[in-house]
Write the structure tokens for this entry.
Amino acid sequence: MIKKLLIIGANGQIGSELTLAFRKIYGNDNVIATDLNPAFKAEITDNGPTDQLDVLDRAKLEMLIDKHQIDGIIHLAAILSAVGEKNPQFAWNLNMNGTMNVLEVAREKGIKRIFIPSSIAAFGPTTPFDHTPQDTILQPSTMYGVTKVAGELLGDYYVQKYGMDIRGLRYPGIISNDTLPGGGTTDYAVAIFYDAVKHGKYECFLKEDTRLPMMYMPDCLKATTDLFLADFGKLKHHAGFNVGAFSVTPKELAASIRKFIPNFEITYKPDFRQAIADSWPNSIDDSAAREEWGWKPEYDLDAMTEDMLRVIGEKHKKGLI
Ligand code: NAD
Ligand code: SER
């Protein structure tokens, strides 16, 4: 049983919600939220420990592990696909050296369990696009994807070489309504909801028929905590589990929003992110996750849309957005 968890990158789109999900499991005092940018929301600072941490600062990482007697790590700090293509060297430095710091410090200090997410960006134009298999070709065409494949391979290597417990999910695009996404290609699927509520229209940076795998945040939290708590002995895969929920195009997402906001309008102005999206799968075969640790998503497209519009609509009425 893990007693003390360190979350790195806890101020991001996923970390700001995952921290609270893990605090419900392990207790508020036992989940330490850290980030390069320590301006956490009040819900995180008020109910548990926080600290500033640059994952590239190995000495501080070691200090925090010793200080809090950490035995589990969730490493979320990364540069995502769109920002990564603007500065590939920066993305390589953070994504690879951050991951190596976490793995090496964890090895030296005998950390019991580590979670490091991968992404659908690990796939590329030579991967089968439909029902993309668990074990398949990994030849991404973005620097972000290169770092995600290398991260998966490193994780699996540390499992095999050092007997460590390392787990990871290939997250699809995550749709959420708390913290805005940090610069990915799937960010349109969040921005569309804010613009629908605020302006009744949205200009999309992808073409209308660009199909991508997506997942609503409650399912992302469930997938992550379920995998983290799964019996390691039953896992045949480790650092890069496929997980799916639903696949959608901008046109279909707009149609789903129109079920609740009938006059919603969408226009299309594709930019450099189109090429990234075109290299990623249409849909995911997640049967290994279902078989090995019981993965099952709860939200389909319309259930997600209804909930997103409800939450963002309430924020808008209160003048918060
Ligand atoms: P994000 O960009 O929203 O958050 C990343 C966080 O890391 C930010 O709070 C940032 O301040 C922090 N950070 C940046 N540099 C740091 C450093 N040097 N040290 C410590 N913290 C640093 O990203 P996210 O969407 O929450 O993604 C979390 C993880 O999930 C990443 O590994 C990402 O690749 C993966 N992922 C996300 C999605 C998605 O749709 N959000 C999809 C696939 C995979
Ligand atoms: N949401 C992420 C991105 O678009 C996928 O890893 O970069």
